[in-house]
Design a protein that fits this description.
Layout (H helix, E strand, L loop, with lengths): L3 H17 L9 H8 L3 H13 L3 E4 L3 E4 L13 H6 L8 H5 L9 E2 L12 H12 L14 H11 L7 E4 L2 H12 L5 E6 L3 H9 L3 E8 L2 E2 L4 H8 L3 E4 L13 H14 L2 E5 L24 E6 L11 E4 L3 H14 L4 H11 L2 H28 L4 E2 L8 E5 L6 H10 L2 E2 L1 E2 L12 E5 L8 H20 L5
Parallel strand pairs: 3-14, 5-6, 5-8, 8-9, 9-10
Antiparallel strand pairs: 1-2, 4-11, 6-7, 10-11, 12-13, 13-16, 15-16
Helix pairs in contact: 1-3, 2-3, 6-13, 8-9, 8-12, 14-16, 15-16
């Protein structure tokens, strides 16, 4: 199958021919276009259908494809009025978050991103579950705002310490995170975020007008010894944490710090949002129990997603809370989307309650272990000057400290030019970074490509150093 780049190239070429031709001119044959552009007949036919739908060409069976009219450049719209309507306040910058979804060009080795690559997605099993779901009577009807009971029960069993009445189904973990932060805070208040942490959480907090109070991370997780002073200084009522395989560092919070975090939450009467996004991506051993499983008094608001562990298109997650917090979260969720589509919930429930789910998790665990080890060993061999924070026991990210004189953003740009996509660490800090870092992802690239990716990164680092050491121009 031809890739998107080939399709776009053929589309541009044919549009150029149409623009320079006279109505009635005949375009080259399918075979000629196929040979000239190195694409399949299906790709040629798809592009011709696209141009035909726009009225640019006319296909005459048995005769060929002919120019219907010359392509006209689109009239430049005047949207300047929007500047006055939107006002002069600075817009929220979510470019770092959106960049995580960008698809690199062909030939680029992807050591960036946040989802499993296509080779690890259980496409056949998910498709079978979806087929069964859409045939279910009432599948396309209204769904309770909290979600399908069967799916809520499954999440409750998996999380532990809660029952289905504490669970609501959301459209993925990002939506759950947004609902939780918005519901538990008020504009102008503070929220405690780990530093570094998920860039999407930073964007959400700032979009709601919150003041971010960072708490440092080390190789044992959040520095809970610093939390009391931070809470007293900031008056924050919410702490956001990723205690398991944290993004971007890969760190798992130590048991004693987990216990200390819960003692602090009880003492200060604050909420802990537990973003358990990677629970099902454990590599070496079963993941530790959730914070929510040992929280009888409702301090923990728990988020558990299927998106990271199964497929980017499976936008299904659980948002879990107790007491009045549940009611507030439920109301906020209803304002977002009323409910998650029934067929998607039914397909998710069918999948996770089938043998295919356990098989998938075993496969992913083994493959992520192979890829992680390939990345760690390649860095040790080719880039020993990068300091790796931890060897993650799960998830799909590795956090590496760069030499002080290297600009991480510039290095990421040079690396992409050399054919490897990496993520600059700067965007993952809610305040000033403590130095240059890279987040390297091993979940989106096969193990056999990782050594070459690291080799390309090493070349880019050499160039970045040369730029840093070059004398300034006068």
């Amino acid at each position: 199958m031809d890739d998107d780049n080939s399709t776009r190239a053929l589309s541009r070429a044919l549009r150029g021919l149409v623009a320079s031709a006279t109505p009635g001119d005949r375009l080259p044959s399918v075979r000629s276009l196929q040979q000239q552009h190195g694409v399949s007949p299906l790709t040629v036919q798809a592009v011709v259908r696209e141009l035909s739908a726009e009225g640019l060409v006319t296909a005459r069976p048995g005769s060929g494809t002919f120019v219907a009219r010359a392509a006209q450049p689109a009239e430049l719209a005047d949207t300047s009025w929007q500047q006055a309507a939107l006002g002069g306040h600075s817009p929220l910058d979510v470019s770092s978050t959106l960049s995580l979804f960008a698809k690199p060009a062909a030939g680029v080795i992807r050591l960036a991103g946040g989802y499993l690559d296509d080779a690890l997605v259980p496409s056949a099993a998910l498709s079978a579950s979806m087929t069964r779901a859409v045939r279910r009577p009432g599948s396309w009807g209204r769904v309770p705002a909290e979600g399908r009971e069967s799916l809520r029960q499954w999440f409750a069993r998996e999380i532990g310490g809660v029952d289905a009445s504490n669970v609501m189904i959301t459209s993925g973990g990002q939506a759950a995170l947004s609902i939780a932060i918005r519901s538990l805070t008020r504009p102008g208040e503070s929220i405690v975020l780990e530093s570094p942490t998920y860039t999407g959480a930073i964007s959400i907090a700032r979009s709601y007008g919150l003041d971010v109070a960072p708490v440092p991370m080390d190789d044992r997780g959040m520095r809970t010894d610093l939390l009391p002073a931070i809470l007293e200084r900031s008056n924050a009522r919410v702490i956001l944490t990723q205690p398991l395989f944290a993004n971007p560092t890969g760190v798992t919070m130590a048991a004693e710090r987990r216990a200390e975090l819960m003692r602090i939450a009880e003492h200060y009467s604050v909420f802990v949002i537990e973003d358990d996004y990677a629970h099902d991506l454990a590599i070496e051993r079963p993941a530790p129990a959730s914070l929510a499983s040992a929280d009888p008094n409702g301090h923990v608001v728990h988020i558990r997603s299927l998106t990271k562990s199964a497929a980017a298109g499976l936008r299904v997650a659980a948002l879990v809370a107790k007491g009045a917090a549940y009611s507030r979260l439920r109301s906020a969720k209803a304002l977002e989307d009323f409910y998650v589509a029934g067929p998607l919930q039914d397909a998710a429930s069918d999948f996770v309650n089938s043998p295919a789910w356990a098989t998938h998790k075993r496969k992913v665990s083994a493959e992520l272990g192979v890829r992680r080890d390939a990345l760690v060993s390649s860095l040790a061999a080719k880039l020993p000057e990068l300091a790796v924070a931890v060897r993650p026991r799960g998830g799909m990210h590795l956090w590496a400290r760069l030499p002080d004189q290297v600009d991480d953003v510039a290095l990421a740009g040079l690396a992409l030019a050399d054919g490897v996509a990496v993520t600059a660490g700067r965007a993952w800090f809610p305040a000033e970074p403590d130095g240059p870092h890279l987040r390297l992802t091993f979940g989106e690239t096969s193990a056999d490509l990782i050594p070459e990716g690291v080799e390309r990164l090493a070349r880019a680092l050499d160039r970045a150093r040369a730029f840093a050491q070059a004398p300034p121009r006068v």
